[in-house]
Structure formats: C-alpha cells, structure tokens
Amino acid sequence: MEIMQIVGLGIVAAVLAVTIRHNKPEMAMLLSMATGIILFMLVLGKIGSVIDVLRDLASRANLNMVYLGTILKIVAIAYIADFGAQICRDAGEGAVASKIEFAAKVLILVLAVPIMIAVLQSLLKLVP
Amino acid sequence: MGYDINLIFKIIGIGILVGVAHYVLKNSGKEDYAVIATLGGLGIVLIWVVQLLGGFFDQVRSVFKLF
C-alpha cells in the first residue's frame, strides 16, 4: 500500500510549506517542487512496468517499434511539461507556465508529423 | 527507486533557520547581512533541488527509454 506513504508525505509537506510560506515564499516553492519530484519518483517504477507490458504487447503484435517509441516520447514530454508548468503556476508565473505548455505542444506536434505522414501514405495506397 | 524524504526536512530546516537569521540580523540593524543570509540559504536549497531534478530527469529518460 504505497498510497499511504504518498498521502502521508504529501500532507506533511503541505503542512510544512504552509508553515514557511508566511516569511519565506521562495523556500516554500522549492519545498513543494522537491515534494513533487519525490512523489513522481515513487510512481515512476510502476509506470516503467506498465511500459514494459506495452512494449511486450507491441512486439507480439508485430508493430513497428518506431511508432511505440514516438508515443512513449510524447507521453514523457506531456508528463514533464505538465509538471514544470504546474510548478511555475504555483509560484505565480502563469506566463512562463503557458510558454512551457506551448513549447510542449510544438514538440509533440513535431514528433507526431511522421506518423501523420505514414497514415496519409497508407491512405493514398488505398485510393486507386 | 531511491527517494529521500530527508531532503524535505532539510529544506524546511534551512528555511526556518534562514527566516530566524533574517529576523535577528534585521532587528540588530544589519540589513545587508540579512539579505546575504537569505541568498545563501536559497542557493544551498536550490543546488539540492536542481540535483534532485537532474536525477529525476535521468530516471524518466531510463524508464521511457529515451536517448
């Protein structure tokens, strides 16, 4: 039951951050950031086992590994960008958070273009 | 999956210490030392958090097998 550890850690960190936010807001922001990183690391192992299962399924279905790699890259970009944007938004920098999200969208679009091209090419093969 | 809860308590300890030092130095008329103490504490904590963030990114890279 790792959820007990996670909830306990989150509550303790929240109480400590509220304690210190009054006179040192930058320290409270770093504290919440460290808490977020530690919580993310706690569940990263589980994500890894799920990804291993997906990889196994894809290799069993004779899927092209390039596509699975692209999808995993997109998921990683989305996770990390969301993490950074939320930290910036917590610190009151909504503009920086919006730019991080914009950059993540552009990077995901760049990664998705080859898949779109492949879909279009297979469509063109179907049309006589 | 290494994780260190102690980092949170270290950060909060430095925060409280720097807050008290800031208060004492400010009340004894040494404003510039108060600012230096605040900046020093912030730098120490920032170095810890950035190292943690670097380890986190390495871990994400190895889990998602990105290179």
Automatic annotation (TrEMBL), chain B:
Matching InterPro entries: Spore_III_AC, Spore_III_AC/AD
Keyword Lipoprotein among record annotations: no
UniProt keywords, alphabetically: Membrane, Transmembrane, Transmembrane helix
Transmembrane parts of this sequence: 7-25, 37-57
NCBIfam families listed in its UniProt record: spore_III_AC (TIGR02848)
Protein name: Stage III sporulation protein AC
Source organism of the structure: Desulfofundulus australicus DSM 11792
